[in-house]
């Protein structure tokens, strides 16, 4: 990263925050969508609206797809904002790097639909993929921010339902403790240019409704993560959510999950969305693609051997 | 890993432990050396005894060396056992993968030479390398167990002395908290086939002498790690030292160090030494080589640009 890249971004953050600074939830959603679609999608992809067994969503299809690969992407936005439109650019960056069709479902949002609405929808979409011929060997999951937490909660629910798990998952800047009890909520408060504890607690309240902030399905730092497939966990060092990720890594690893945790110096919440103008954004996406690519390749190899 | 591989290893562990079960420190050192040299070195390497400004050591030289690369390897053995001979096979595995000359110094051991003898020797060897024309751009560090902790303590001392830091470091199953206060010391006690808290505390006492177990130079989980180069931290999920690594990763990352933590399911203390008969051992060494290789390559590129 050049210092110039980072300085330019800091001024954008202020704009972004003011776009979200409205009591009207629909205006907030629109502001978030405009912020995240400021960069065009990666070249060569096409988008297709989809009905995923009653849940709307959008496919992002790259010009080349390897081995029927599918990535199910659970978007961020504090369980309150974010959409398959907002995450078109992010989906396109992953689709083209991974040579996978990327599906971004529009799970139901809070406050209209509190926990467990988002989780139920994510699990239903996962099941819909299996029912529609997607092999778990060809399927990986990814998500950012609340979508990172939701990715883990979804895999736990999938495991508990006795369904086959995906081949791996990558999570970026996960929000995984809705109690906001990570040390970094305070220790990184002065460094984080995007989030603060108060906002987190507000969004947590809207999503949780009457559920406890320690509910494992909402706060997967408290979940039993045993049996999950290999995980890549990426987080920036300038995030109040840093320790949501270090705690997840420690907990998943102790439960016997293969874990890779990457901590990126100076990076801020979901810096990946700035990949078109920030070297580390592109590099972090490259790492995700390489990580999932190796898992797809290994599954394909083991299938060949056992076939 | 096949289950058969792991079962075979479990019987070796028992043999290994009994070889070390002697009150005679010289017998213990000999037993450790025999255990670690049970596999031959990787093909094509040669060894050369060296005098590193008064500290003995041994070079492992692969048939091909890329860009004058040097890896300084700080061996494990609880600061009490271990040697450049014992670590010949490990050095050879890294040398041939990384196309680097690997230097294993025989730093002074406890109980004859308590803290800070090992650290002083490691820093002297580092300085000797710089004085003898090794560019920090071509220099990386690695270490296992106490050598993992020593690798971090050495870099902190190098930083504080105002010397140029190496290009990166990889540590395996680090012993980084001589107070033995990691949760995993108890939570993984039933899973760890090699180490127990009592042994750790005994070795810590021998090394620390009169120093506090929280001395950052002996227990780098308590050190200020700011400014260190990129770190790869590998640990097994079946280790009582698991949380020495997760704590190091969290602390280094929070200080702005680029960190990759890998937690390997079912793996035990420094499983890398079994690379010739254990797939995960070879794969973990491959990861270290790829990680350091990318750093060497990046340094070379930046040198080309600034030249």
What does this protein structure show overall?
Chain A has one domain: 3-Layer(aba) Sandwich (Rossmann fold). The termini of chain A are far apart. Chain A has 307 residues and is α/β, with parallel strands linked by helices. Chain A has an 8-stranded mixed sheet with strand order 1-2-4-3-5-6-7-8, sandwiched between helices. Chain A has helices at 3-20, 25-36, 88-98, 117-131, 146-160, 184-187, 197-208, 242-254, 279-306; strands spanning 46-52, 55-61, 70-74, 101-105, 139-144, 169-172, 231-236, 259-264. Strand 8 (259-264) of chain A pairs antiparallel with strand 8 of chain B.
Protein traits:
homodimer; 307 residues; Rossmann fold; 9 helices; 15% strand; globular
Topology of this protein?
Two copies of one chain form a homodimer.
Chain A: H1 3-20, H2 25-36, E1 46-52, E2 55-61, E3 70-74, H3 88-98, E4 101-105, H4 117-131, E5 139-144, H5 146-160, E6 169-172, H6 184-187, H7 197-208, E7 231-236, H8 242-254, E8 259-264, H9 279-306
Parallel strand pairs in A: 3-4, 3-5, 5-6, 6-7, 7-8
Antiparallel strand pairs in A: 1-2, 2-4
Helix pairs in contact in A: 3-9, 4-5
Q: Major sheet of chain A: size, sense and barrel closure?
A: 8 strands, mixed
The helicity of chain A comes to 40-55%
Identify the overall geometry of chain A: globular
CATH fold node name of chain A:
Rossmann fold
Residue runs with pLDDT of under 50 for 5 or more positions of chain A: none
Q: What's the level 1 CATH class of chain A?
A: Alpha Beta
Which class best fits the helix and strand makeup of chain A?
Answer: alpha/beta
Separate helix tally of chain A? 9
CATH superfamily of chain A: Alpha/Beta hydrolase fold, catalytic domain
Mean pLDDT of chain A: 94
Fraction of residues in β-strands of chain A: 5-15%
Q: Based on the structure, what is the oligomeric state of the protein chains?
A: homodimer
Count of domain modules of chain A:
1
Summarize the largest interface: chains and residue counts. A-B, 25 and 25 residues
Strand order, main sheet of chain A: write it out: 1-2-4-3-5-6-7-8
**Helix/strand order of chain A:** HHEEEHEHEHEHHEHEH
End-to-end gap of chain A: 46 Å
